[in-house]
Specification:
Oligomer: heterotrimer
Largest interface: A-B, 46 and 44 residues
Radius of gyration of chain C: 33 Å
CATH architecture of chain A: 3-Layer(aba) Sandwich
Shape of chain A: globular
Helix content of chain A: 40-55%
Number of strands of chain C: 18
CATH topology of chain A: Rossmann fold
Radius of gyration of chain A: 19 Å
Number of helices of chain A: 13
Chains: A alpha/beta (336), B alpha/beta (331), C alpha+beta (429)
Number of strands of chain A: 8
Largest sheet of chain C: 6 strands, mixed
Shape of chain C: elongated
Strand content of chain A: 5-15%
Chain lengths: 336, 331, 429
């Protein structure tokens, strides 16, 4: 691990200097916050305090934090069902997120969306999508709109490896390419589409190879290396902002938990999960990097976890105290 | 008195599109072959010359992409008008329309809006066979969050399209291939025919005929024929299928005591069932003198052969026959 | 083997035939072509002929049975053939009435014998509607049911013109129109009404009810009557002592006699002696009626209806009292049938129970006279010696259509009426 940290420091030396200690610490704090949120979400589910299902992103925090931090204010986000991390990294209020997760009127979507459909239109977070490639054609529209309005915004659309095999992926990447739309297509490859391993669903090594078919640049990065994700998405966003069009970024990561709460995970071994947790955990790696680089102390690293848990405790308290939606209001919000 | 200006249905739509684009630069068109080709049925002819390729966007053959592009643009402040070349092809856009456009607002707590219009020609009668003749409007009627419009005249086409574009919701705008060349009075100045207003297009006392799209004209022709026999049809065009303004229909049935719903789409699971149910569940029930009937497309794909195609959907003669039976109690 | 003789199929659409009569008996010798029985289709009577020479062996159906075509109706023994012990008995299906499965099921579940039901379907097939009719169910459209309920009409009394005899709303409307025209020419629809605009507060204070249904009928008929019939009004006060005495006697016996019943009986008696008033005027025709069909006005919650005591002159006072009570109850329940409100020749209207002393009534067209009576009052009248004595009295007002009824006729009628009321024993005269 020490050796890995030194390698990473060397690789990202310019980036570490450019971002500075405060930003790097904030990114690590965000990763802790995501994990704390997800762990609490699972706990609340087990306690029977939420119903339905949820898709946890534990293990994938680096991709969310790296990508979100690479974007600028005013940019757009479209993401997918495993989206808690993206929202928190985008800057969403944990209270209103937790309230939405718990189906409360104070939630971002007034309890109508739930875990899978958190959106914050005011911050241009256009929402998480329960249809794996559903956001991709929408991103084309957002890109078109940006272009027609002649702003310098960029649209970040995050989807999983499974979405790359839906037809909408093809249509969207082609349209984005022919019209040079300011879109960053971020494929968050967590190795499994529910139970389907990428090795069985693709006959190519990297999903980013597909970009070539549309005349787009494609790049694959270590999705558990927050700085690698940051670097790749930054470059893609800058390219989009320069009017040079879209990029396909693939971030290879790993989900520790099942696809959803009903997943018994018979398609993979405990050893495989344990290997990723022990050797490639994104939080552990980034903490180690900052410690090795002398940017944080052991004590600071330990406090970050506690701070994250405290924020989530407060979010749960806020949510539990929040009112349920009024049944009398059930018809509202269908039509403008 | 000055002669009333007449336009075809297609010209009326085009004039509406032009006026909207001149007024509001957020309005743009997107679809297959709508640019220099002018659209498969010529509705957008000449618009690319006036507004350029940035606002009259030709797309690859990507129906999901067209729908998604409309949604994304609408979510971020634009007023897109998409065209699906044949209503049949909207099957390739269904996910975007049903799961995205229709639901975004509700799922996000009423905080987003998707002001888009997707135009598409439905219907048979052109010999285009099973995959280019569909009438799928009721699929969309079944989806909360969408509105469904189906104009039957040039006047309504222009006024309803304007209302649809100004509406802040996703609107499925169903045109009909056989109507594009029909003519009628259309004022030049922009005007609105509000969504959700049924229209009594002919008054009569014996039977209420609720007809949509191309069937409105056929019902009116049937009414003329039956008038010679002393049977007076009241013909109502809902114009907007969703939201449905059923009050005039119910009032009419209270007057006539009989109702027949006519549409081109397949009868099974069709819009007629909704209209029949609304009548049966309303106060009009106590005024019924006969069962409420539907006359709609046969439960088959549209055949190619001209004769078979003709008999697959209601025609003037079949409306006359069915209406006469209901009025005379010979059902 | 005996030769089976089947019910032939006489027509393309024929499903069954009814046997009218047998022309042969078992044991009769027949020649090929001889008629053996007469059957009827819905159109014509036909004969079934013997297919070959032989002896009639076993007749399976009797006259009146409806037999499906191709069913064996009897057997023929060939010459020299000996009867077998048991020819295939087909009698299991014997006498099964021709009915649809649904009709059969409804009949069974209601324990109705199908043999008692007349079929109205093809070839006399018993349909669901026949069974329902036999069960007293009326086939009617929703519109017909609503109108019948609104106007207190019994649907069973209306002949339906719709599919399968279903009563249509228009049939009920026609019945209502007939009912109205029993007494008056049907009013014209859609006459202009003048509405004075009201100011806003007045609008809020009023409850608007459309002039429709029974109220509209009343309005139109009374307006027409008062406008077209020149009314003359005659008053007479009668001594009710004898009636009071009679009522007291009956009361003591535990029976009730109403003033209305007495008046109806008395009117019937007087009308018999003054036929000029037992008349109707329609168009250019005056009809003088043999029987006194006397209507009695019954006030309803919202309106008025006039059930008829038919042939009152033939009824005893007791029978009239019973009829008055029965009709009044039916009227209030809205269950009067058309017959019970049709065919009146004279009307009595009594407002005594409301404390009215006397009043004048508008003639119920096309009748030509109506008697209005108030309450019984105690008043002093002079006795033969000119001394005031207290008597129960009643003031009657006769309205008569002067086009038909002369003043003297009206006066004679009133005098006879007074006499019979004051001397009820005259009723026996």
């Amino acid at each position: 691990m020490m050796q890995l940290s030194q390698d990473l420091i060397q690789r990202h030396q310019d980036l570490i200097e450019a971002l500075g200690a405060e930003t790097l610490k904030a990114m690590l704090q965000e990763m802790h916050l995501i994990r704390a949120f997800e762990e609490r979400a699972e706990q609340l589910y087990m306690q029977g305090k939420v119903h339905g299902t949820m898709h946890l992103s534990i293990g994938q925090e680096a991709t969310a934090v790296g990508a979100a931090n690479a974007m600028q204010e005013g940019d757009y986000l479209l993401n997918h069902h495993r989206g808690h991390g993206h929202c928190l990294a985008w800057g969403s209020d944990p209270n209103r997120m937790m309230a939405e997760f718990m189906g409360k009127e104070t939630g971002y979507c007034r309890g109508r969306g739930g875990s899978m459909h958190i959106a914050d239109i005011e911050s241009n977070n256009l929402g998480a999508n329960g249809i794996v490639a559903g956001g991709l054609p929408i991103a084309v529209g957002v890109g078109l709109s940006i272009k027609m309005r002649r702003t310098s915004q960029v649209c970040l659309v995050i989807f999983g490896d499974g979405a790359a095999n839906e037809g909408a992926f093809h249509e969207a990447l082609n349209m984005a390419s022919i019209w040079r739309l300011p879109i960053v297509f971020l494929c968050e490859n967590n190795q499994y589409a529910m139970s389907m391993p990428v090795q069985q669903a693709f006959n190519i090594e990297n999903i980013s190879q597909r970009a070539a078919a549309y005349g787009l640049p494609g790049v694959t990065v270590d999705g558990n290396d927050v700085l690698a994700v940051y670097a790749a998405v930054s470059e893609a966003a800058a390219r989009a902002r320069r009017g040079e069009g879209a990029t396909l970024v693939e971030a290879k990561t790993y989900r520790y938990k099942g696809h959803s709460k009903s997943d018994k995970q018979v398609y993979r071994s405990r050893e495989e999960v344990r290997f990723w947790q022990e050797n490639r955990d994104p939080i552990m790696r980034f903490s180690q990097l900052l410690l090795t680089a002398g940017l944080i102390s052991e004590a600071e690293a330990a406090q970050m976890r506690e701070r994250a848990v405290a924020i989530i405790d407060a979010a749960v308290a806020f949510s539990e105290a929040s009112p349920e939606p009024d049944v009398a209001d059930i018809m509202s919000g269908v039509y403008a | 008195m000055p002669e009333l200006r007449e336009l075809t249905y297609a010209e009326a739509l085009r004039e509406c599109l032009r006026q909207l684009m001149e007024e509001d630069e957020r309005v743009f068109l997107i679809g297959e072959d709508i640019g220099v080709y002018g659209g498969a049925f010529g509705v957008t002819a000449g618009l690319i010359e006036q507004f350029g390729p940035e606002r009259v966007i030709d797309t690859p053959i990507s129906e999901a992409g067209i729908a998604g592009a409309c949604i994304g643009a609408a979510l971020t402040g634009m007023r897109p008008i998409g065209e699906i070349q044949f209503m049949d092809f909207v099957t390739l856009s269904m996910e975007q329309l049903v799961l995205q456009a229709a639901k975004v607002r509700f799922m996000f707590g009423g905080k987003a809006s998707v002001p888009m219009v997707l135009r598409m020609p439905s219907g048979s009668g052109t010999g285009a066979a099973a995959q280019h003749s569909e009438s799928l409007e009721n699929w969309f009627v079944h989806v909360p969050g969408l509105k469904v419009v189906m104009p039957s005249t040039p006047y309504d086409a222009k006024g309803l399209l304007r209302a649809a574009v100004l509406d802040d919701n996703p609107v499925i705008f169903v045109e009909h291939k056989l109507l594009y060349k029909t003519k009628g009075h259309v004022p030049e100045a922009p005007y609105i025919v509000p969504l959700g207003q049924s229209k009594v297009v002919r008054e009569g006392s014996h039977l209420t005929v609720v007809a949509t799209s191309v069937m409105v004209g056929r019902a009116l022709q049937a009414a003329e024929q039956l008038a010679e026999e002393g049977i007076e049809l009241e013909v109502i065009d809902p114009r907007t299928l969703k939201p449905l303004d059923d009050a005039p229909i119910i009032e009419s049935v209270k007057k006539t005591g009989r109702a027949l719903v006519v549409h081109e789409a397949v009868e099974m699971g069709g819009f007629g069932g909704e209209v029949v149910a609304r009548i049966a569940a309303s106060e009009a029930f106590d005024y019924l003198e006969a069962p409420i009937r539907r006359l709609a497309g046969l439960d088959i794909p549209i055949p190619y052969n001209r004769r078979l195609e003709y008999h697959a959907v209601p025609q003037v003669e079949s409306i006359v026959r069915e209406a006469r039976k209901l009025v005379r109690g010979e059902y | 083997m005996p030769v089976p003789i089947i019910m032939p199929k006489f027509g393309f659409t024929l499903e069954s035939c009814q046997i009218v009569q047998w022309l042969v008996r078992e044991g009769d010798r027949v020649r090929s072509g001889d008629p053996i029985c007469e059957v009827t289709t819905d159109k014509v009577n036909m004969e079934v002929e013997a297919p070959e020479d032989g002896v009639i062996h076993q007749i399976l159906y009797k006259a009146g049975d409806v037999v499906p075509v191709a069913q064996v109706i009897c057997y023929l023994l060939r010459p020299n053939e000996v009867a077998e012990a048991a020819a295939a008995p087909i009698a299991a299906t014997k006498n099964v009435p021709n009915a649809t499965p649904l009709a059969r099921r409804i009949a069974e579940s209601n324990q109705l014998d199908l043999a008692t039901v007349q079929g109205s379907g093809r070839d006399g097939k018993i349909m669901r509607r026949d069974v329902e009719q036999a069960l007293g169910k009326v086939r009617a459209t929703p519109a017909a049911r609503r109108l019948a309920a609104e106007h207190g009409i019994n649907l069973a009394e209306i002949q339906g013109t719709g599919r399968g005899g279903r009563v249509q709303g228009t049939d009920v409307q026609a019945a209502l129109a007939r009912r109205a025209s029993e007494l008056a020419t049907p009013p014209k629809e859609g006459e202009a009404q003048v509405v004075t605009p009201l100011s806003a507060p007045e609008q809020a204070d009023r409850r608007v009810v459309r002039l429709e249904g029974m109220r509209r009928t009343i309005a139109q008929r009374l307006q027409k009557s008062f406008q077209s019939a020149p009314h003359i009004f005659l008053n007479m006060t009668v001594d009710m002592s004898a009636v009071e005495a009679l009522r007291e006697t009956l009361k003591a016996r535990g029976e009730k006699l109403s003033v209305t019943a007495v008046l109806i009986k008395a009117c019937a008696w007087a009308l018999g002696r003054n036929p000029a008033l037992n008349a109707t005027l329609e168009g250019d025709e005056i009809s003088y009626w043999r029987h006194a069909n006397i209507g009695m006005a019954v006030a309803l919650q919202d309106g008025l209806i006039v059930p008829i005591i038919h042939r009152a002159e033939q009824l005893s006072l007791h029978a009239i009292q019973q009829e008055v009570d029965r009709l009044a109850a039916l009227a209030r329940e809205g269950k009067l049938t058309l017959d019970q409100v049709s065919g009146g020749t004279f009307t009595v209207t009594n407002m005594g129970m409301f404390g009215v002393d006397s009043f004048t009534a508008i003639i119920n067209p096309p009748q030509v006279a109506i008697l209005a009576v108030g309450r019984i009052v105690r008043s002093f009248v002079p006795d033969p010696e000119g001394k005031p004595i207290l008597k129960p009295t009643l003031t009657m007002t006769l309205s008569a259509d002067h086009r038909v009824v002369d003043g003297a006729h009206a006066a004679h009628f009133l005098r006879d009426l007074r006499d019979v009321i004051q001397t009820p024993s005259l009723l026996a005269w």
